[in-house]
Amino acid sequence: MRRCAQLGFVIFFSLCLFIAFPAFGQGQPPGPIHVKPGAQQQQKAPTSQKPTVIRVTLVTLPVAVATGSGQPVLNLTRKDFQIFDDGVPQQITHFDQGGDPLSIVLVLETSSRVAPLLPEISKTGIIFTQMAMAGTGEAAVIGYNDEVDLLRPMTTDADRVLNAIHHIRAGLNGARLFDALYRAEDLLEKEPPERRRIIIVMGEKNDTGSTTKLGLVLRRAQLANISIYSIGLSSTAAEFRQTPQAAKPVEVSPPGTYPEPPVPGTAQTPDSLNEQMGGNGVSLLPLIIWLVQHGANAVGKNSLAIASQGTGGLHVSTFKDRSIEKAMNEIGNDIHGEYLLAYHPHGSERYGYHTIEVRVTKPKLKIRTRPGYYVAPPTE
């Protein structure tokens, strides 16, 4: 009996030890772990994740083709075109000529500096609705000075658009061009992707007071497949138009002098003046790429010409002998005479600036399209 009692006590004591202390080498018991105050918890090692790659799914290109003398070429077919994205050949998935539905935002400067031109700008309304909207398009109207105002939301009613253009009024002295373009991009990004997205802006060549940078406007337009067409206005030319002039180009300064100061560090020449005033034929591609990459502004350059060349649109200056109505008519014809090509990029999936090149099989033809697009890395 005595031995049995001792044996029972030993068994009981062993069971108590087993319950109170887990065996050496076993893991933590299930349930919450209570950490003493001041003790540091061991964190799980973070899992490495690859950054999400932004891919451009569709690129659309407005392509204008002309002869050496400037006459439009309107009889090309899909097989006459080749597209290269960063030098890699691409397959054309869409081809059309002036038949895609249009969504257009008309952006008008209404600052006090261009007040003498507002009656002539108002006259372009009928040309815009007939030549640009052309009965099947839809349009919105934005005015800008020190403020950016939506004068007419997007509508297919040409009469409402015309009424908004006819009733524009001059505002204050500012000209928030870039903010107005960015607002127009807001409207167009909401449009279905199958619609062709267009901005037609009419104003002076430079911006005053915007918080948005021109490079960011270009970057967004290129990614959203928006083309910017522009009509350059001149307050100096407006003053000359107020009095009858002989049928010759208006001279705004004495012969041998220049009304515009040169870019710092450069000499003023007829060619440099042509570039400043938005003359066609001057390649701005290196500057455009730099602006888009850095999201910056171009000091002393023609911002309207840059915006148009950077998105494949047409810039028309009215500084000399071209009237505003003639310029709007020219842009309307250009929009509906262009070829519209589209492709899904492959073979060059990367961040950074992608250059686009369009070629035609027929020789000695001039091609105008947008130069490329920029895909920003996740850190931007």
Provide keyphrases for this structure.
380 residues, alpha/beta, Rossmann fold, 6-stranded mixed sheet, 4-stranded antiparallel sheet, globular
Tell me what you see in this structure.
With 380 residues, the protein is α/β, with parallel strands linked by helices. The chain has a domain at 99-240 and 274-337: Rossmann fold (3-Layer(aba) Sandwich). It has helices spanning 2-20, 118-133, 158-166, 177-189, 214-223, 235-241, 270-276, 285-294, 303-311, 324-337; strands spanning 59-66, 81-85, 88-90, 94-97, 102-109, 138-144, 148-155, 196-203, 226-232, 315-317, 339-343, 352-360, 366-368, 372-375. The strands form three sheets. A six-stranded mixed β-sheet has the order 7-6-5-8-9-10, with helices on both faces. The protein has a four-stranded antiparallel β-sheet with strand order 4-11-1-13, covered by helices on one side. It has a four-stranded antiparallel β-sheet with strand order 3-2-12-14. Strand 2 and strand 3 form a beta hairpin. Helix 5 (214-223) runs parallel beside helix 9 (303-311).
Short structural description:
By secondary structure, the chain is of the alpha/beta class. Helix content is 30%, strand content 22%.
List the helices and strands and how they pair.
Elements: H1 2-20, E1 59-66, E2 81-85, E3 88-90, E4 94-97, E5 102-109, H2 118-133, E6 138-144, E7 148-155, H3 158-166, H4 177-189, E8 196-203, H5 214-223, E9 226-232, H6 235-241, H7 270-276, H8 285-294, H9 303-311, E10 315-317, H10 324-337, E11 339-343, E12 352-360, E13 366-368, E14 372-375
Parallel strand pairs: 5-6, 5-8, 8-9, 9-10
Antiparallel strand pairs: 1-11, 1-13, 2-3, 2-12, 4-11, 6-7, 12-14
